[in-house]
Structures are given as C-alpha cells and as structure tokens.
Amino acid sequence: EEQDRLLCDQPDQPQNPKVLRIAIIGAPNAGKSTLSNQLLGRKVFPVSKKVHTTRCKAQGVVTCEDTQLIILDTPGLTSPFKAKRHKLDEAMLTDPWDSMKRADLVLVLVDVSDHWTRNCLSEEVLKCLSQFPQIPSVLVLNKVDLVKKKFILLELVTELTEGIVNGKKLEVKSAFKHNSSSSAKSLQIIQASPPESRAPESHCLQETAQAPEGSRLDNSSDTRASESSLVTEAAQGPKHYGPGDLKNMKGWPYFQEIFMLAALRGEEVDTLKRYLLMQAKPGPWEFHSGVLTSQSPQEICDNIIREKILEYLPLEVPYGVIQVTEMWEEGPSGELLIVQNLLVPRKSHMMMLIGRGGNVISRIAQEAGQDLMNAFLCEVRLKLKVEMRS
Fold first, then answer.
1. Vertex 13: Cα angle to 11 and 18 (nearest 5)
2. Cα separation of 28 and 312, whole Å?
3. Is the separation of the CB atoms in 299 and 86 below 8 Å?
4. What is the mean pLDDT of the chain?
5. Do 273 and 308 sit in the same domain of this protein?
6. What sections of 236-268 are H helices per DSSP?
C-alpha cells in the first residue's frame, strides 16, 4: 500500500528539477542488474550467474538533491533463437528497444572477464546503438578486477571504441605499475586533445603515468591518414549503418566516455554515478523522492526467489519453474508473511528443487527471505512449496 501510494503521489520535486533517463544495455550476464543495484544503494533487481535473470524492463530511481536518475534495467539483448531456447517471453526481445526509445543516455556494459565475448560488441548491441544514434552512449567495462593482465584492458578499449571516443583519436597509455592491485583505478586512458566539457573528477579518460615498456598503443604514422577521416566522421556524429556495415564492426566509434569498474565490489561506481548526475538536464521528475523502484513488492519478491532458483538449479531446469503467490499478509507484529508455490513440469525437476532432505528448497527460502528483509526493511517469513504442474 505504501509503495502504491508513493507511485501515485505527485513528485515532490524542487523548484528547478533535473532528470536523466538511463538505459543500461549489454549481453546477458554482463552485470547490468548488479550495477543498477549499486547505483540505487539497495538490492531491488535480481542477480544471478545464469543468463536471462532479468525478464522484463524495470525502473530504479536515484534522487539526489535536485536531480533524479531513472535507471532502466533491461533484459540482456538476445536473438530470437536464444529467446526460444530459454522459453523467454516476447518482451525479452522488445523491452531493451522500448527502453532505448525513452532514454537520454545509454550505458553499454561489457563483461571484460568473459574471454569469448569481450573483444567485440555483440551484433544486437551494435544494432541497438545504430538504430538510436541521437542518444549519447557511454562504454562501461565491468568486472575489471577479474582481469589479471591489465594491458588486456588497453587492447579492449581500442577495439570496442574503434580507437575513437567523443570524436577524438585515443592516445592509450598504461598507468599501472607492475605491483599494482587489481582495482578499477589501476588503469587510466587519455585522449589526444580531450574535450573541455569533460568532468574534471572523472577517472575514465585522464591521468596517465609512466607506462611500462610495450604497453603504449599509439598507432604508427602510416595508418594515421585513414584514421583522420574516421575521426572527422565521428566528430560529425553517427551515420546510418546498414546490416552489412554492422557485421564488419567490432566496436562503436561514437562513445562519449569510457568507465572501468567492478560493479559487484562497488569499485568506481560512485565515479560513474557522479558523472550521470552531471549529465542530467532540466526537466520534471517522474517519481516521488521516496520511490526506489517502479516494481511492486510482489514483483521484487518473485524476482528475488527466481534469482535463488537460478542459482541452485542446473542448466535449463529453473527456466521452466512457475511461481504462484498463495499468501501475502501482514502478521500481528508487522512482519510480512509470504507463501509461494513453485510449479515444475517434471518429477525429476521437483526432486532437484527440493533436494536431499529438503536442503535445497530450505536454502533458497532462507537466502531469499534475507534479501527480502534487506529490500523491504522489515521482518519477512517466507515459505516455499514445490508441486508438479498439472
């Protein structure tokens, strides 16, 4: 009731409000929901190591003084073939595109710990960017703490940006020492002639130190002539790309900024948050300052339980589980009483979900209950039942 009231209330905006709508896109499991939770300061979006944990677009709201950031956490961009394989709703294909239509800024998240996908942007991401060239985009390299050889990040930056950021050719140098920690700050990048509008405290494209031998990625003189035309083209703004053009592209030469962070550990997330607050433009707020997410409490509950099911069940099994809430009541002491029925299609799936002696379902209920208490800031008693789907 409190959440419904806040969502219906008129925004309590100040005299000169500012707002920024941010779409976070990327491949499945890049860490979009983890980053969203860190920006919000509380876990309201489900997170799992398995792909397609986020099933629909959901909004998070960060209100800071006169500025409101609206975070559009979206499902990972996927193909129709993969959507069919994971029994995904049609919304999984359309929601990221719908979010882009509403966005003032897009964050493209790349998991740099994934050796198979980190060297190029997926065709779905490039297609999304090319369809909305008027929306400013920012490249965010996530999970940099898991990359031991930091020079790899230098190469990734060059590949994922086509060597150009904000219309300027990158002069990429290493700023880490051999004994540096694996933090997000251990690598810095500069641009040749960086724009004056760049945020002075931003850690994304500045501050170089003495580079170790062989770590500088300056281009040789014989390639600079062809690159100069690409830089000029990038400065003029994105052109229209056809399907054939995108197949030959590995990166996007129109990013305005690059950020390197470790969302799970919260490293450099505050730097990104400050940047986003600075990008906000004058405009009316959409939500009351007390709103943290547009999701209903029931949606948050379903998502958190599904997150745990994905975590503990193997392969494709959890994608066939249907959740039905049987009870949602307030107890005599103000605690929240929740009973949810988990319907599975096969007896073997039911046995896996219950576990030997009920240990799996008990662990899911315990961990989900703790997350729900952290989300709702009240006592939660959660009971889960498992049944065969008729």
1. 115
2. 19
3. no
4. 79
5. no
6. 243-247
